[in-house]
Amino acid sequence: MSQFTTSKSVIGDMNIERGVILDLTAATTAVFDIAPQTRENITPDAGEATIQSSRFAGGSSRNMHIEEVINSSIPSGWHKQTALYGWAAEDGEFTCEVAADGSLEWSDGTDVIMTAPAGSIPIADWISCSTAATAGGSGNQEITVDLGSATGLVTLNFNAYTVPDKFFVDWDGSTVINTGFRGVSGTYDGVAVTVAGPGAGTASFTKTTASPRLATIRIEAPFTGTQWDVNLGCPGGGSPPYVTPGTGRRTFTATSTAYGDTLNGGTPFTLDVVYEGGQSFTFIEMVSDPLTNYLSGNLVQNTPTRWTDYYFNVTINSAGDAEISDMTDVIAIRPTVVGEEQYLDPSGSYEATAYGRDTYNNSVEFFVSINMVTTPPLELYTFLKLNVSAGSITSIAGPYSAPTLPANTSGVKILPISFSDGLGNVYQYNEGAVLWK
Q1: What are the structural domains, with CATH classification, of the chain?
Q2: pTM for the full model?
Q3: pLDDT tens across 160-198, in order?
Q4: Those residues with Cβ within 8 angstroms of residue 371's Cβ, 6 or more apart along the chain or in another chain
């Protein structure tokens, strides 16, 4: 591909091909090689000023970026999501893990280098109590709720509307609320259902101890065409322990730990972290004769590692294994290939389980093929930052992505590479070697 060509992945991320910028202002032409960001594999040719920069430029809505580089022992650069609650930095052997409250920890395999506070990023299906109602449709779902350390009466508000659903709350190892089916009695998908009460209602339990903080709402919604919403209040009607962040690009601050300080010569530090924070979701196509009659269409993503329709769920676990299941059990499995784990892409061939064969294909072996429908990147510009002095380039950083291009200053010039319109179109602004003169 040509230099600086921008390509997009099936999950909506953008990548920029390696390229060079030729600075003609100096007595001898300076060559800046915008190469993959690894500290080990770049050996500049004689006379070249090589900048080490990732070709990855984000776009799928789930990535994080740390622009400032302190030293090679402290996280910087792009962080790509590798699991439902985990990220990995491209620049170095750093990982980032998130807790239920949206706080984060960056580690290097030895200890935690820096942390970010609760509510830094939104977590799928993890919310603070007294958050606005969560809504959904067919399929089983779990929502983890942080009740904080307060004690007192905790009230579940729910609405199953017409088609029956069940709501449960688990806390401290026990099911403390079970509403039974709520909605309107009748026959749904060939099943006669007698409800325990109307769709809308409340149920409560008493949180008697400060710990555990977390409760789980479980929703069983087995019937076609259902819809529901649910909200779990805080103990004693108190305030949430933190504000659950919504979607949207945001910047938060990571603060060094004592161990992180040692990596910086004993000096504490803070770093601004940009989280893309969009709400870009993929669709997947599932093809298999035994299952086709049950499909309502493409499966829709509702967390980074789960896709659903009215009948089936496709999930990817922390090991990279993917499973197709119905409301009862696992139908087919795509095993992990060591070293080629796919945490965000469920594409591949799935082999039926014994349950899948017996239930859907008269005990005969079958396979399921899943393909991801390409998701457009967010509406973003990709660009490089050229640091200049007396008209000449001194260094180059990037590529970056942002909804708008930063302003030029006397010392930093912005070089646009491409633009994604959010509809799947990527417009190339620069391609091939760039002349600075």
Answers
A1: 6-60+377-436 (no CATH), 83-122+245-275 (no CATH), 126-237 (2.60.120.380), 283-373 (no CATH)
A2: 0.74
A3: 999 999 999 999 999 999 999 999 999 999 999 999 999
A4: 284, 285, 287, 347
